[in-house]
Amino acid sequence: MMKEVYITETNCITPLGFDVAANIKNIGNDVSGIQLQDNSKLLNVPFYASVINDDELDLAFAKVTSVDDYSRLEKMMILALEPIIKKSTIDLNERTAIILSTTKGNVTALENQNSIDSAYLNVLAKKIADFFGFKNEPIVVSNACVSGILSVSVAKRLIQANLYDNVFVVAGDEVSKFVLSGFNSFQAMSNLPCKPYSVNRTGVSLGEAAAAVLVSSNKENAKIKIIGDGSINDANHISGPSRTGEGLYKSIQSALAEAKIDSNQIDYISAHGTATPYNDEMEAIALNRLGLENVPVNSFKGYYGHTLGASGLLETVIGIESVTKNMLFASLGFDTIGVTQLIKIIEKKEDADIRYFLKTASGFGGCNTAVLFEKVY
Amino acid sequence: MAVNKNYIRSFCTIQKNTVFLNGEAVFTTEEDSFAGFSKKAYQHFEINYPKFFKMDNLSKLAFLGAELLLATADENSAESNTALVFANKSSSLDTDVKYQNSISDSENYYPSPAVFVYTLPNICLGEISIKHQLKSENSFFIFADYDPVFMENYCNILLETQKADKVLCGWVEYYNEEYKAFLYLVDKKGGTEHNHKQLKKLYNK
């Protein structure tokens, strides 16, 4: 019998609020963090993105420490972790790990040739770990846009192998000139706030956020149980998803097999839904191949934009609230279905009893991750 | 979790213009750049795969190592579910710096999608997966130094939980012409026992 693993604490720092309750309130009211940005330091044309206000971030950070030697992203990550570390009262000893998940970390440090050292992800992770006094060296997961949800899977596996009792996971990425110019060069940016799964979708809106969870073998205060996972590559293309959704299909199958449940038992899916034509189509195909076309599904990208390595963890945090509050949230930005294989997009907030919750993500390099969760009764 | 013994089936080190396979130098050349060295190695091992020349340096390094180990594995790796667990220190920093240089000057602003896509360390896993048709578990980690204990543990987890039949593990570090790749294939059978002490020894060889 495998050890049971739970998520017992969650938090997030986003443009919709600096704790989970504030985020849920805004999501429940269909409020989006995506706004028109006119900042030529970031991109030479106005663009839609979901950006955290600097003054609010500094104000919140000043309440945690008076030391001001941290980048924006580091502040976001520390603010995400701080309340859950404090609340959990867990010793940060050799049985407690920290996983940091990010796609680009402090990539903005490359703008100044003297600060390249700060762009190393292990340096970023060490700085966050040292702020709290973790005894173990941090583990960094950097696997493109699946990083955030993959780190939940990694944490669960490390606990099941009895290497740790508790793993704090923090994920974060920020909107930068680097990432904006890159997505823009791919012509993957939406000219309006992104519209996942819509026939009118034209691409992503980028966003920034940090999220944190405590993954634990201790059932006390458990919010949800992690029951299966898989992270399988498409082996098809490095910058586009498989047309058959092969890797996502296999990742979900792997999670289902481990959880020993059938696909028809899944009650809710928080999908990736970046609103690029290919991603959303690929997801619809993979979900149909698994007979999941009638399961309520949403994308949170309409609220937060694509927060890269943070997205999988942030969307897990919000998805857990759906399960514990028995509430499905609208897939913001959706109007008319725009994928060839039908899926059941959640169009407005509704009550629902959710026992099994599936979180998925896909990213560059052909990577995919699926994690299955079960309500704790 | 009951841990059965696993074995290092084969291993490969690439550093300082030399390729070692199972401890033996199998290719070396006098070159002053990684680009020159990797091209010569590609030709020497008769790897007929033109996509190689579109890859960034990190992907080329990882790809060459994987090529040597997966080409000699006697079963078909695609059918036997070979997972990829890779790590390094510098992530994709070498390509990140190149990409940054293409956007830092507004007079000379030419962001390229072909460069941008390589600003992720896990792209090299995608390249290996495509070449060897590995629809399998993939993950990329970052550590300050090669961490044989973590690598041993995570590899064993994949094998014990039957998420994979074999695991190709790799430390693939590349930044600014400084590089080292250490890759090895872990299997349930083989000659050398898979443990962190052995890994440390082979890494430092």
In percent terms, what proportion of residues of chain B is strand?
Answer: 25-35%
CATH superfamily placement of chain B: Thiolase/Chalcone synthase
The rounded distance between the terminal residues' Cα atoms of chain A is 20 Å
Shape of chain B: globular
CATH topology type of chain B: Peroxisomal Thiolase, Chain A, domain 1
Q: Report the end-to-end length of chain B measured between terminal Cα atoms.
A: 31 Å
- Work out the largest interface and the residue count of each chain: A-B, 57 and 51 residues
**Separate helix tally of chain B:** 7
Rg over CA atoms of chain A = 19 Å
Task: Describe the largest sheet of chain A.
Answer: 11 strands, mixed
CATH class of chain B equals Alpha Beta
Order of helices and strands of chain B: EEEHHEHHHEHEEEH
Number of domains of chain A: 2
Computed structural class of chain A: alpha/beta
> What's the β-strand tally of chain B?
8
Describe the model.
- The complex is a heterodimer of chains A (377) and B (205).
- Chain A is of the alpha/beta class and 377 residues long.
- Chain A has 2 domains: 5-216, Peroxisomal Thiolase, Chain A, domain 1 (3-Layer(aba) Sandwich); 228-375, Thiolase/Chalcone synthase (Peroxisomal Thiolase, Chain A, domain 1, 3-Layer(aba) Sandwich).
- Helix content of chain A is 31%, strand content 21%.
- In chain A, strand 15 and strand 16 (367-375) form a beta hairpin.
- In chain A, helix 3 (72-88) packs parallel to helix 4.
- The longest helix of chain A has 17 residues, at 72-88.
- The radius of gyration of chain A is 19 Å and the shape is globular.
- Chain B is α+β, with helices and mostly antiparallel strands and 205 residues long.
- In chain B, strands 1, 2, 3, 4, 5, 6, 7 and 8 form an 8-stranded mixed sheet that branches.
- Chain B is globular and about 60 Å long.
- The chains are: A alpha/beta (377), B alpha+beta (205).
